[in-house]
Amino acid sequence: MKKEKTGKDLSRIPPNIPKNPSELERAIILVGNRIKAELKEKSRQELKKLLGAYPNAKEAEIWKHFLKTLRKERIETQEPKLEDLQN
User: Fold this and answer.
1) Which of 16, 25, 36, 56 would give a disulfide with 52, using CB separation of 3.0 to 4.6 Å?
2) What mean pLDDT comes out for the span 76-85?
3) How far is residue 60's CA from residue 13's CA, in Å, rounded to a whole number?
4) Cα(67)–Cα(32) distance, rounded to whole angstroms?
5) Crossing angle of helices 21-36/41-51, nearest 10°?
6) What is the C-alpha to C-alpha distance for residues 39 and 33, in angstroms, rounded to an integer?
7) Residue 9 has what DSSP assignment?
8) How far apart are CA 78 and CA 47, in angstroms?
9) Are 67 and 14 in contact, with CB atoms under 8 Å apart?
10) How far is CA 33 from CA 7, 29, 52, 71, in A?
11) Rounded-to-integer distance, Cα 18 and Cα 22, Å
């Protein structure tokens, strides 16, 4: 398996990660659908465009968890802190 110097397993993340929040959300939905079944050609191509690859069901589970965690982190870093709102 591929590993970077930090020891992170790179096979656990998609080749591409959407920066746009709506694209990230769409990728999460498509990966969730992929866990349950094969996607139709249009959705398969959309997922490949968003993430750079079409995962098998097991990879889709891992990628979905990763993408949801990433989405949560992005939301948390964008939320203004209470102190910022009071100043």
Assistant:
1) 16
2) 68
3) 10
4) 11
5) 130
6) 7
7) B
8) 26
9) yes
10) 30, 6, 17, 18
11) 9
